[in-house]
């Protein structure tokens, strides 16, 4: 679902930085990009006090949620203390969801969505420190404590401050395409895309290939040879490590498994080719390491949300003249 009207629900005693995340992503006017109507909403009425005593005068009440296409709860006061969310705010979230709005909980905002019942029977995440508490308070929620964000279609949740930025950029990418998401990411000076399944934190960052680290060199080599069949054994052999050592180092550096990382990189490269060329989908699939377009399709849909053909129709920019040469 497309969106331009964004309601950001602010509760009392919230952290200031987390509260500003969706406003930073959607609120700035950027040349050549759609303008979002961002509404800061006092979810419990009156001025909003942050956790360090700064008072915010949110200009909107809960009635501003009623026609918003995207409703974001950017954070929440510490869930182990203080009063629960106001019932009026929870009902506003339920009404928004019933009429088809996308509802998002960032970081501790997931607790508010859980209190509304919108996460019952769904996967969700929050900051890793509070994931066990979320699971104990809301047993009907399938808590995933290690991921950056979870996209359940019309209800999405994220972990931590940076995870909130990742999820907001994911929403832009999902709705308006990678070019717009990349432009916003560039203005914020943040990475344009981190996959939702990536771990919330890793022990060591991925070393660049220029450092001479065999892991960084192997990842760079893999990215240049995605058209080949690449197995974990092949990667570990290229890095001159045992399979067990390679697996352990890879997880520490990336927060995911080698197989999951490879699959994600293949789909990302397929996106780039669909955006910039008129190559048939079958040829795109083979060029990024899939046996056929049929093999690519379920992985692409799972990661991107639409089929490769639908993605190209929306985001492809190659000249139409190229079609006659490639079909």
UniProtKB/TrEMBL annotation:
InterPro entries the UniProt entry points to: Class_I_gatase-like (IPR029062), DJ-1/PfpI (IPR002818), Homeodomain-like_sf (IPR009057), HTH_AraC (IPR018060), HTH_AraC-typ_CS (IPR018062), INH-QAR (IPR052158)
Gene3D superfamilies found in the cross-reference section: 3.40.50.880, Homeodomain-like (1.10.10.60)
RNA-binding in keyword set: no
Sequence ranges assigned to domain HTH araC/xylS-type in this UniProt record: 216-314
Keywords: DNA-binding, Transcription, Transcription regulation
PANTHER family, sorted: ARAC-FAMILY TRANSCRIPTIONAL REGULATOR, HTH-TYPE TRANSCRIPTIONAL REGULATOR RV1931C
Protein name: Helix-turn-helix domain-containing protein
Species assigned in the record: Streptosporangium fragile
Lineage, broadest ranks: Bacteria, Bacillati, Actinomycetota, Actinomycetes, Streptosporangiales
